[in-house]
Task: inverse folding
């Protein structure tokens, strides 16, 4: 199986449109040879100090040139689902040629319910919550589920990733999960530490074996941008898998 996956990755990477998108923010980062994913957040979408309960006011000021994952996380779902749909319509008025979705909104990112398996009542409850988001899922061009790492448990991460990807794929839209080569900051013991090279390889292989592609986020330590490190284990693994040189 590993050899078949490896051949697939090599074949894909020979395609001009490599299915791995760069959304990292490292300082002094060179051209990685990857297509970009633009991820405008609150500061790009609203003026400083502006009430963010209304629709974004700066969409018309932006000049996106790439695949876009709008990063609006403060509107609760499903209560504000229409606000997301209206924001997407507003975005398309200005940027109709840009394939766009929302970071992490559909499906609802879930770890503990996802790893229980489809027969468990908690898993079914999670699916019902995702069913309530169907109108948003079909409105976007792309789904960007978040598959960040919370625990040093590769087997648990794979179950969590497979379940979240399966939920995204129920909507029949292209799926490009976000991966981050550092532990999520919600885990106080591991926050922002880089995951080891084998775990990162497993994540890339899992996602690229199941999805249309992947978006890599990173380059932050809290609110501080990290300097680019060409020798970083995660980058060496990424180059190897995608045959980037």
Result:
């Amino acid at each position: 199986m590993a050899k078949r996956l490896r051949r697939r990755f090599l074949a894909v990477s020979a395609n001009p449109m490599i299915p791995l998108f760069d959304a990292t923010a490292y300082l002094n980062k060179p051209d990685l040879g990857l297509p970009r994913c633009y991820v405008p957040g609150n500061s790009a979408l609203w003026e400083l100090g502006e009430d963010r309960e209304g629709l974004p006011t700066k969409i018309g000021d932006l000049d996106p040139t790439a695949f876009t994952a709008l990063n609006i996380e403060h509107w609760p779902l499903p209560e504000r689902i229409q606000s997301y749909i209206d924001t997407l319509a507003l975005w398309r008025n200005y940027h109709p040629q840009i394939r766009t979705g929302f970071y992490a909104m559909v499906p609802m990112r879930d770890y503990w319910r996802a790893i229980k398996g489809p027969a468990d009542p908690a898993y079914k409850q999670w699916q019902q919550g995702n069913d309530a988001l169907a109108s948003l899922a079909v409105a976007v061009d792309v789904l960007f589920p978040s598959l960040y790492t919370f625990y040093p448990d590769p087997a648990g991460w794979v179950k969590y990733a497979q379940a979240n990807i399966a939920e995204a794929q129920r909507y029949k839209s292209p799926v490009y999960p976000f991966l981050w080569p550092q532990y999520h900051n919600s885990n106080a013991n591991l926050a922002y530490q880089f995951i080891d090279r084998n775990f990162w390889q497993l994540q890339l292989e899992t996602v690229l074996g199941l999805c249309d592609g992947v978006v890599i986020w990173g380059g932050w330590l809290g609110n501080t941008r990290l300097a680019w490190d060409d020798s970083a284990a995660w980058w060496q693994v990424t180059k190897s898998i995608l045959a980037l040189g």
